[in-house]
Amino acid sequence: MDSSAEPLARLEERHGWNFHFHDEQNWELYIDSLTDSLTFIQSVKRDICDKAKGWFSKSGPAAQQQQQPPQELRGAAKTAHAEQADAQRREQKRLQSMNEQLSAQIEALKATLAQQNTLMVSQARVLYMYASPRLPKDYKIQQLKIKEEITALRNVVPLDVRRATARSIRNAISNRGVWLHISMHSVKDGAGLLFEDSEGTWYEVKNLEHMKLLLNEGGDIHIEFVFLAVCHSERFASIFHDAGVKHVVYCATEVSDKCARQFASSLYHDLANGLSIKNAFASACVVAKFDKDKAQYGLLSDGSAWLSPAMTAGALIPRSPLQPPGQLKDLPRQAENFVGRHDAIHAVMWAFACRCVVVLHCQKPFGRSATLVEIAHHAALEGRKYGGLVAFYPDPAPGGLLIVDDADKPLAGDGLEVLQRHLKHPEAKLLLGCHDQPKVDFVGEWMSIPVALRPLSDEDAAELFIRRCRRALLAGDLWEPEQLEGKGDPDRMIGLEEISPRHDSGKQLMEMVKVFAGEPGRVRSAAAKVTGGTPSLQGSLARLVLE
What we know:
6-stranded mixed beta sheet, elongated
């Protein structure tokens, strides 16, 4: 422990007090002065007692036998003795009163500091960093429910939301006065991590040694608390702890989005109510067990019980470069059970890296409108480049992303002038949904990049069909009765994990959905007819299309 902190440590250990200060050194000097005052009072009391004992020894019976003063002197001595005794009693009362006053001041200071600590912790801020890119199906990883997690944590502590990139994490650990919360996916049981780039697409850090270099090179690690909402993140946590972060909370196993945000909410709630790191973590673990959360959470700590004052004082957090989030526009609701379209969304976001205008086009009903809505919600998520700055025409999006569905009509009429005015802002982007691919750049001087929306893949169509059926899809639905031999139990339910060419059932279903020609609307319409009373499909979906 630092020598300057020893007086506080002695007081905390002796009296069970807890001091959190805006300026720890000034409060420490004040406490030392009160302690010195009490020590001085005690020494004065001892000096008075010693002098009184010396006086009584000189005027006691033994001294009287050696020298018998005259009667008048003995009377004067008695009077002086009485007066000195009275003076001693008055001095003792005065010192006792001073002692009580100083004790009262310390108790009042203790109550003030406790109230100030509660106030400062209630102003705690969390720098929330996330990576939730849209991933190819090869990863078999669902997107994180970032919106739900942000909402849940904001009910407990204020959040500053940012994307988790290598650069943003390196900048974050150099900040003073924030708690860092990182939410992302790990791969290969924690051997790698998935980040987002500037356009919200993914890249993988396959070697955690790169993260070690990122954290250790350059020094200046000021952040003291990190929460890793990442599956299998024990090795990741060790890298943060070894780099100098005092307290790191992590999950050593898989954990669902819901369980992770509930655990984080419990932890931040207890920290915001003045509990120590150790007690807040233990309390959150108990709550998780009662909620039947099977994840295994861990805490790496340097042994100190409390977060530094700067982390709990909202006023001390540097507000630059952390800017307040924009106001999210009212966007259309996302399509239920939206699947696939990773390639199209990825192509659109990458196109915006080099052009202001992108055209998503398809002549057939391949779900263009639903894809535009999905792109809007993807781009508008807080922390991303256009967070809070996305709107659908005719709503304005100054300096942001404006999306126009069925753009053939607005571009042919007066709407063209509106779109041209929008693009005059240096940061503005325009996404057009068109029936046909534009043959010329008809939005003034700005060159457009066309992105074709392809038919839904057989794998995506099979997944959508299973999700939209009103009853479970069974193995007996995939083959004709004479083909069921060797296929196992015909009443076995077909799961989403079987949608793959590696599985016979998945391969068969992918062949069956070709009848929908990659049109999501036809898949949804046919699946809605598969109810509890529907007989076995017997390996054909043609009947559902004709009905």
